[in-house]
Write a structure and sequence with these properties.
Shape: globular
Radius of gyration: 12 Å
Order of helices and strands: HEEEEEE
Strand content: over 45%
Structural class: mainly beta
Number of strands: 6
Distance between the termini: 20 Å
Largest sheet: 6 strands, antiparallel
Helix content: 10-25%
Length: 97
């Protein structure tokens, strides 16, 4: 998935519907950028869908592994309680709350 899609969702307060590692998920984007190793990631709060560990909540997701499905316009409740930009592991920010 392109970082522009994730940033647009953040800016318009949309929930992203994506497929990530084989699970359909709904996520609220809080930050997008690159790690120290140069990997593009998004720091999200997952509100619905599946996950390897079964947990919802805070996640760091590689953009290259996320497949865009759709958006839910204006449905994001970001920023979520517990949002800490320092915890995002983003060192080269593209967009953030």
């Amino acid at each position: 998935m392109d970082s522009k899609v994730a940033c647009q969702a953040l800016n318009y307060h949309d929930v992203l519907k994506i497929n990530y590692h084989g699970y359909d998920r709904e996520v609220e984007v809080h930050a997008v950028g690159k790690t120290l190793r140069g990997n593009e990631i998004m720091y999200v709060y997952q509100t619905a869908g599946g996950a390897r560990n079964g947990n919802l909540g805070w996640k760091r997701m590689l953009l290259e592994d996320a497949r865009f499905i759709d958006t839910i316009s204006g449905a994001s409740r970001a920023p979520r309680s517990g949002y800490d930009e320092e915890d995002s592991h983003i060192h080269d920010s593209v967009c953030a709350l």
